[in-house]
Amino acid sequence: MRYDEKPQMILFDVGGTLFGGGKFSALNGLSQLRLRAVNPDVTDDETLARLWDEYMAEIGSQWSESGIKLDMPLTSALKYITMNAGLHFDISLAEQEEIFDRYNSERTVNDGIPELLEAMKEQGIRMAVISNNAMSGEGLALAIKHWIPTAEPEFVLTSADLLFTKPDKSIFIAAANYAHLDPEDCWYCGDGRAPDVDGSFNSGMVPVFYDKKSPVSSEMRTDGGRGKYLAINHWNELTKIIKSTEC
C-alpha cells in the first residue's frame, strides 16, 4: 500500500465526501417528481407522501425481520409510488431518481473537490464512484453531474446496483475489476471509517479518510486496528499530495 506513487484511479464516496447535505424531505422530492409527470393532476402531494410512508413501513419491517443488510433500490420505491398514484412519465427512471434526489434535500459541494478533480485530470488519474446509496448508478451519475458539472466519473457503482453495502469488500473489488485495475492501484476516498476505510483497506485499495474536524491537515493513522491509512481535513491536501507523487 503506497501513498508515494500516483494512483491510476481515485474512487469517491458521495454523501459527506463529494457533497454535504441538508435534512431529507421525501415530500419535497415527490412533489417535484409529480410536476415532471405527463399527467401531474391525476394525484396530489399528500397521496404521494402517504404512499411513501406506507411503502417504507412495510419494506422496513420485512427487512428488519429477515436480518438482511442490503440496500433497497430507490427505483423500486419510485415505481411503486408513482404507478399506484397513476402517474406517467416520458423521462427515464434514472432521470426520475435524479429529480427526486435534487429536491429532497439541499446539497453543497465540499470545499476543494472541483480543484481536486481538475488536478486529477491534469495528472491523468481516472475517477469513479462507489457509494452506499439507494439510487442506481445511472441516477446517481446524473445527480453528480448536476452538482459538479466538471466531474467525469468513468462509472458510478452503488449498493443498490449490487445490493452489497460497504464495508463489504466485494463492491470495491467489483469496481477495480470493472476498471481493469488491481485494487492496490486505486485510492478510495470517504468520510466513514468503517464503510470507507475498512472496506477499501480490506479489498486492497489505498484508503484516504476525509476527516474535516481533524486539527491536523494530513497524517497517517493506525487507529482501531484498521491498518495504516491517510487522513486529511481538506481536499486541497489531497490535491497537493497527488501533484507531488511520482509518476
Question: Can you describe this structure?
Answer:
The protein is built from ten helices and nine strands. It has a seven-stranded mixed sheet, sandwiched between helices. Helix 4 crosses helix 6. It folds into two domains: 152 residues, Rossmann fold (3-Layer(aba) Sandwich); 79 residues. The protein has 247 residues and is α/β, with parallel strands linked by helices.
Tags for this model:
seven-stranded mixed β-sheet; 45% helix; Rossmann fold; 9 strands; alpha/beta; 247 residues
Compute the average pLDDT: 92
**What is the annotated CATH architecture of the largest domain?**
3-Layer(aba) Sandwich
Per DSSP, the total helix count is 10
CATH topology of the largest domain, anyone?
Rossmann fold
CATH superfamily of the largest domain: HAD superfamily/HAD-like
Class inferred from helices and paired strands: alpha/beta
Largest β-sheet summary: 7 strands, mixed
Top CATH class of the largest domain: Alpha Beta
**What's the SSE pattern?**
EEHHHHEHEHEHHEHEEEH
Strand percentage, roughly?
A: 5-15%
What is the domain tally?
Answer: 2
Short summary of the structure?
The protein is α/β, with parallel strands linked by helices. 45% of the residues lie in helices and 15% in strands.
Fold blueprint:
Blueprint: E1 9-12, E2 19-21, H1 26-35, H2 45-66, H3 74-84, H4 93-104, E3 107-109, H5 113-123, E4 126-131, H6 137-147, E5 156-158, H7 159-162, H8 169-178, E6 186-190, H9 193-203, E7 206-210, E8 218-221, E9 229-232, H10 235-244
Parallel strand pairs: 1-4, 1-6, 4-5, 6-7, 7-9
Antiparallel strand pairs: 2-3, 8-9
